């Protein structure tokens, strides 16, 4: 056997060829299918971008309408899924519930497991886009003890997110266009990010020919961790902790720099962006707009601003190229929109869904081999077996 190259965390190893997302971490560039993230966030909507990411081209008006209608065909979720959600305690974290429910979808949609041709692939894509949104919001309804809601086929996709989350039998939920637009933008900014931890997970699980739902369920679990998508929740919790502790941002900056303290500044640093995170720039602007329009005056924001200002001129952060990432600001918007902290990472998952689908599809279409990294063994050499009474 040839020598094995060791690369913990795959910092320098490419795992696949991909046509989906271009990322230049030094220059702070992010493009989906060749289109700049700045343009897409400004000029397109989330379903349009989902279509682009999954199928490779911006849709025509007709294609987009067809896509939206085809998604609507599958928005009913099997009633028996409710038995599964019933079994969870109200205190269960929504990401754990979401991962389980996504996996359970396989049992009710066995066709999505064995995608054999383009038509089945298209159906699988639409089913996943439809049902994942519904069950993602069900995790919130469960947590709140509210009756589960159904997709309203007269409304758009992002509008439906708000409807599914907040509409109650006691009265209609009043849609707010500022909120819809902000969410739309956030979902677009999260839609894909090449071979990050959850996407690599989706591809490697899928490479064994596990189905789409099973692969995405694994992606949800990977996203949950605080070093990945869970950071948006962790950022808000950190800001709340700082507030409770008297609001001294510099004290926490010092903790983050202290190598004997495991504390890290949540929402700072990125594996590939070493200059700035282009998504963070767009979100920061959106956050300012949303807060101004909704008239939110949140003391947590002052702490966030102070942390950001101090870190950006601090030698420790500057020399290590640690800048605020997408998760630093997204939580601030979600909070302003009235979304509970435990749901933040679920929103990340809804946004990332088209990316996971596109990457899974690309991996299957390209007939990629099963993912199977090697290792460098560091354990014992051969040893003589020791009988139980001699140990
Ligand atoms: N606070 C304090 N120090 C940090 C931080 C931080 N947030 N991030 C990195 N460092 C230090 C780290 O201690 C190390 O220092 P030294 O060279 O002295 O040992 C140096 O910077 C390099 O860090 P690393 O851990 O080797 O970098 P990585 O590429 O393995 O990790 C990261 C990237 C995003 C996991 C990390 O920066 C981090 O833990 N950040 C906080 C969590 C976070 O915000 N995650 C969201 C990432 S963006 C969206 C997403 O993926 O979901």
Automatic annotation (TrEMBL):
The reaction(s) this protein catalyses: oxaloacetate + acetyl-CoA + H2O = citrate + CoA + H(+)
Keywords: Transferase, Tricarboxylic acid cycle
Pfam families: Citrate_synt
InterPro entries assigned: Citrate_synth-like_lrg_a-sub, Citrate_synth-like_sm_a-sub, Citrate_synthase, Citrate_synthase_AS, Citrate_synthase_bac-typ, Citrate_synthase_sf, Citrate_synthase_typ-I
Annotated pathway: Carbohydrate metabolism; tricarboxylic acid cycle; isocitrate from oxaloacetate: step 1/2
Coiled coil: none
Keyword flag Lipoprotein: no
Keyword field contains Aminoacyl-tRNA synthetase: no
Organism domain of life: Bacteria
Database matches in CDD domains: EcCS_like
Family indicated by similarity: Belongs to the citrate synthase family.
Name by which UniProt lists this protein: Citrate synthase
Species whose genome carries this gene: Flavobacterium chungnamense
